[in-house]
Amino acid sequence: MPHNDLSRPHVFHAGTSSRTIVALHGTGSDEHNILGLARALDPTASVLSPRGMHVEAGMNRFFERYADGTFNEQSIEAAVTNLAEFIAAAITEYAIDAGNIFATGFSNGANTASALIVRHPELLDGAALFGSTVPFAHVDPVDLTGKKIWLANGDHDSYAPVAVSERWVEQLRDFGADVTWLRHPGGHEISPEHVQLIADELRS
């Protein structure tokens, strides 16, 4: 099955505003899993939620992870290329405003959103990244001026260590992004307080 066109399993729900939220699920989930998160961030937005097409131990992911937990960066590159092409097809099919697309995701999906915004910055206005870490060992400079990014992680998330998050935030800011780093005292989970804060700021 192609991963870059509308035959890819996905959900699209039309909203009442011009914004579309691209919702990218975490490992072991599917295109239905974080629809509620997208609606909580902006109940007026359309939602486009594709399935991650890499299957690992029976679980859906967007890209491959090695046994030691490190990322296969070639797999990430292929995933975001296919995802960018899928979004382009969806823009035409669903009459999406290409200038008002925002991404959100959890864990593997959030890492995919991070990779998408640095590889295809023209696609996204910004992103809300939950339980996310830097997707690449090295990221070439890219112009992210005007992009609003929230990184929302737990201080005890071994998947996204604080020191790594700090460096990633600094790097994104160096690229010109307006980054808000949100921290909660838990682990690899989404904080409802962070969701509400981001939702409030998206409305402003």
TrEMBL record:
Belongs to the AB hydrolase superfamily. AB hydrolase 2 family. This is Unannotated protein. Keywords: Hydrolase. One of its GO terms (molecular function) is hydrolase activity. It holds the Pfam family Abhydrolase_2. SUPFAM superfamilies: alpha/beta-Hydrolases. It comes from freshwater metagenome. Residues 17-202 form the Phospholipase/carboxylesterase/thioesterase domain.
